[in-house]
Amino acid sequence: MNKTNMADAETLESITEHERILQEIESTDTACVGPTLRSVYDDQPNAHKRFMEKLDARIRNHDREIEKMCNFHHQGFVDAITELLKVRADAEKLMVQVTDTNRRLQDAGREVTAQMEEVIRCRVQQRNMATTVEKLQLCIPVLEMYSKLKEQLESKRYYAALKTMEQLENIYIPRVSHYRFCQIMAETLPKLREEIKDISMSDLKDFLESIRKHSDKIGETAMRQAQQHRTFNSAVQKQASMGFPKPLYTLNGRTSTQQNGLDTEEGADEDDADEEVLTAQDLVDFSPVYRCLHIYTVLGDRETFENYYRKQRKKQARLVLQPQSNMHETVEGYRKYFNQIVGFFVVEDHILHATQGLVTRAFTDELWNMALSKIIAVLRTHSSYCSDPDLVLELKNLIVIFADTLQGYGFPVNRLFDLLFEIRDQYNETLLKKWALVFREIFELDNYSPIPVENEEEYRSVISRFPFHDAEIEKQQFPKKLPMSQSVPQIYIQVKEFIYASLKFSESLHRSSTEIDDMLRKSTNLLLTRTLSGCLQNLIKKPHIGLTELVQIIINTTHLEQACKYLEDFITNITNVSPETVHTTRLYGLSTFKDARHAAEGEIYTKLNQKIDEFIQLADYEWGMAESDGRASGYLMDLINFLRSTFQVFTHLPGKVAQTACMSACKHLATSLMQMLLDTELKQISMGAIQQFNLDVIQCELFASSEPVPGFQGDTLQLAFIDLRQLLDLFMVWDWSTYLADYGQPTSKYLRVNPSTALALLEKYLSYFFIIASLRPECLSASLVILLLPFLCLANANPLQSLPRVRTLGCEGISLRSFALRAAYGAAA
């Protein structure tokens, strides 16, 4: 039952579903029937059969309804057909009429249609044109601005081009951004910015290269203007100090003053006076810097530009500060070096003031401090190679102008002036070397003879060059001779020239008169105490300088010493510093010339002694001669004549110098003669030789007593030969008893005879005597004992003890003869 019920239920449900599907098929569009039919097959497996059955049943129902309806309306349908057939003929007529009418209408409206089409086409074109104009009015400003941008780029107006780009991007392009060309334009603008950036950077690099090439010219112009300014100020100060009127007007760089009713122009001889004053901006186009700065500022990359510019300028500064290896050889090398540095910093100063923040004062100060250290090191090194004082002086002037130029631009230059003091010492050294050559040349060309003066004009010419005043010489008649030689006024003039040369370096150093005076005096002291003194010392030591030249050198140094006070006055007149000032340095010329004079005096003594030795070497004594020739030896007479003529030249020397030279010569002569007697190579000497030697000593004593040099008191000069005289007298007189008896007493007649000296000479005499005695035995008599007595006494191991013993024996009453006999017998034993 249940199964039957369930089957009935399912059948009822499927029938209901089929009804619904049939209703959908009837009510929906034919195109949508497919899904509905598909649902039939999606249900139960055999559902479509039942659906087909149901469908067939529905079709049969509809057919019955259609048949019923047709049967119901058939008479009316027939009537309608009949009426339609009646109307058909009328409709055909009407169709013909309508067709004819339409044809006529078409023929009549064809032209109107064509005109209407033309009107429509024109209105479409008009509408398009209006739209186009409207759109073009929006695009034309963009295109105009872009065209303007291109023109600005072509004319290198990059800053304006960037402003135009800003307007395009912010105002014009947004209005027409939907157009393709605007999109392309918008994409092009960043590339153009980068291109402008690159071009401006390239221009900046060209500018940096340009100013590196033009730095020399810029610096030269700036330094020339600074020099002209300094020259003008110096001229104004000079006018003020000399009481000249102030300038009335200036025109074209010339200063006109009125004096004595006349107009005078200063600087008229300067070629640069009429030149237009040029600045760095006149020589270099700075627009690339400004342009690049503005461009990078607009692009928002100013910091990058500033860093790049500063970095490049630092590199250029290092290149500018690198000198050429041969810069020290000429002043042009230094000038070019300074011009480049000045040009570099003039450009930086212009950039500092013409731009806002591209370079700062701190940056320029850093550059300058770095440059200043390098400049000082370079100048200190290269100036040390300079041996020409003129070059050093020109270098100093360049440094002063260099410092003044940069000081005018606000750079501190105190260290440069400190460097000048170092260079001043070097300048003085080069001056000293130069003047050493000058002094040597003067000394070499000097004839070392008094200056002959033929007339008043020549005399005035000499005293105008050298401060010489001598009342006695002025009273003499012309021609006459001045005591000094030609080198004295030349040396004096050269010392003054040295002072002038030293003064040139002190100019423009911004130092007080007292400091300049101190510099001059110190440098002059160096000239006198080192250079001139050294030249004099070398001159005195030269072998070709004879006694006459040495005497003249002493006279010259005396006059130069006296002229030192005039040099003091000369420096005082230059610096206007009173010599009574506490800190004034004194000239050391007095000590210099005294030392030179003392050296010359010592050299005179040495050369005199050498000359005496040369004459002594000519001595040729016959030491075994039986008796003397009765006259002095020829060599000695020549020597005495030489000394006499030499001492006559000494009349111009100071008295003490001549006396000392004469005393030294006599002492040396006496010593040389004594050494000749006591020469160890001389073994025997006869009494005749002693007598001949005595004649020579007598001539020496006569020479000494003739007062070859005035000023000696009494027999002072003769005392030089007292040792020889007493020794010769002892042997000539054979006064041994007196010698032995008075030995050691202050009143002894032979006080200056040394026992060893007497013994040595006695040995030589006894040696000769014994040789003669061996040849002539009859000579061995009591006289031999008399000869042996002094020998035996002096030959004792301690003669100073044996002699008193002899005296003691004598006091006891034993005669000298008996003592000699005893001694002789003892000697024989």
TrEMBL record:
Keywords: Exocytosis, Transport. The lineage of its organism: Eukaryota, Metazoa, Chordata, Craniata, Vertebrata. It comes from Denticeps clupeoides. One of its GO terms (cellular component) is exocyst. This is Exocyst complex component. Residues 416-764 form the Exocyst complex subunit EXOC6/Sec15 C-terminal domain. The keyword Nucleotide-binding does not apply. GO terms for biological process: Golgi to plasma membrane transport; intracellular protein transport; vesicle tethering involved in exocytosis. Residues 253-272 are annotated as: Disordered. The keyword Glycoprotein does not apply. It comes from the Eukaryota. InterPro entries: EXOC6/Sec15 (IPR007225), EXOC6/Sec15_C (IPR046361), EXOC6/Sec15_C_dom1 (IPR042045), EXOC6_Sec15_N (IPR048359), EXOC6PINT-1/Sec15/Tip20_C_dom2 (IPR042044). Residues 54-223 form the Exocyst complex component EXOC6/Sec15 N-terminal domain. Residues 263-272 have a biased composition (Acidic residues). Belongs to the SEC15 family. PANTHER family: EXOCYST COMPLEX COMPONENT 6, SEC15. Component of the exocyst complex involved in the docking of exocytic vesicles with fusion sites on the plasma membrane.
